[in-house]
Specification:
Blueprint (H helix, E strand, L loop, with lengths): L3 E3 L7 E7 L2 H16 L5 E6 L13 E5 L6 H6 L2 H7 L29 E5 L3 E3 L13 E4 L11 E8 L3 H11 L10 H8 L4 E2 L6 E2 L2 H4 L11 E3 L16 H11 L13
Parallel strand pairs: 2-3, 2-5, 3-4, 7-9, 10-11
Antiparallel strand pairs: 1-4, 5-8, 6-11, 7-8
Helix pairs in contact: 1-7
Length: 270
């Protein structure tokens, strides 16, 4: 597995995988791991990580896999650097945190190098509220639509949660299609994966419920149905201008981050 350095062998043929590229996402991964364990899953939990200090995760009984950034060209790296990407394709619907490093997102593709038969990827800013092991039986490539503001969002996918089948052949083909002359992937891995898997299968939005739905489309929000909650844009461990509007969701994240198992039946509605 060139470019990958795992800290221990795999224990299962299935794995939940997340990506950590800085100290902030260590915080996110901590809550995510606690939430996954609370669902009773028996699959491996894998943290792909770059040079971030993941020492706080070593006590959580997860598999840590050090990964290199992809071997992309200087031109590609310059195009997808934070300032260059944000200048060309600004985020206008929400605030990206200061630790957002767009180029690092492409390291997510390294999960196709893992030795697992089946993988479910989860961004480190998600929480799993109910068991989702059934997703391992879903085909490659399944993802939920990028719904958080209006019905027009249904035509786009969100790469915060998806199903995959690791394959060295697929990984090599991805690299060949990723870094081509004049390539610009507007939303980094998300745009690339939507292009690569152009016939992607749609998951219900409850498998990737984006936090803005709480106030923008409350009619979609039913706690009993939600499997995965995703804190897109602003993160629950930050101080930000939407924190008061999202307070119940932030409090839920804080409970998991502390290692608590919250009572989901007691959560307020939007």
């Amino acid at each position: 597995m060139e470019g990958l350095r795992p800290d221990r062998p795999a224990r299962d043929a299935r794995a939940f995988v997340t990506l950590v590229t800085n100290a902030d996402y260590v915080l996110g991964a901590t809550a995510l791991i606690h939430s996954l364990k609370a669902t009773g899953t028996t699959a491996d939990i894998v943290v792909l990580h770059t040079d971030a200090d993941v020492a706080p995760l070593r006590t959580l009984d997860v598999r840590l896999v050090r990964c290199d950034l992809l071997p992309t060209s200087d031109a590609f790296n310059q195009t997808h650097a934070r300032d260059a990407l944000h200048a060309r394709a600004a985020f206008t619907k929400g605030g990206k945190p200061p630790f957002h490093t767009p180029l690092d997102n492409f390291a997510k593709l390294r999960l196709w190098q893992l030795e697992y038969d089946r993988v479910v990827f989860l961004d480190a800013d998600t929480l799993v509220l109910r068991n989702i092991d059934k997703l391992f039986d879903y085909p490659e490539f399944c993802a939920a639509p990028n719904v958080y503001e209006g019905w027009g969002d249904f035509h786009r996918m969100n790469s915060g949660v998806f199903t995959a089948r690791p394959s060295a052949t697929t990984f090599a083909d991805m690299l060949a299609r990723l870094d081509v002359p004049d390539a610009f992937w507007r939303r980094t891995d998300q745009t690339f994966l939507e292009h690569y898997f152009s016939d992607w299968h749609g998951l219900p939005v409850v498998y990737n419920m984006l936090q803005y739905v709480w106030f923008a489309q409350p009619q979609l929000w039913k706690w009993d149905d939600i499997r995965v909650l995703h804190f897109q844009y602003e993160k629950p461990w930050q101080d930000h201008d939407k924190a008061d509007r999202l307070r119940p969701l932030i409090d839920l994240w804080t409970s998991y981050a502390r290692g608590e198992v919250p009572d989901l039946s007691a959560l307020p509605n939007p």
